[in-house]
Amino acid sequence: MASFRYAIAVVYPARPTPDYGMQEGIAYAGAVPILVVLVVAGVLGDRRPEQRGRIVVRGARVMILLGLLASIAAHTLPAP
Known about the structure:
By secondary structure, this protein is mainly α. It has helices spanning 20-47, 52-76.
């Protein structure tokens, strides 16, 4: 998506090129809490086998939410 360009600018004046380095940093910073949730859900699921299904579902929901928030932030914050 980032490499797609129009032959003629869709808006006038043309928008500046996004800061891809900042987008990358935000995306990696968003991946850290996802990994933390992954580890915590794994440890809790191992310690509480009777609640493992509920823990996995909640952990997956939180990871999806964090991934969506990180991707939205990575695409909107660096915009000038």
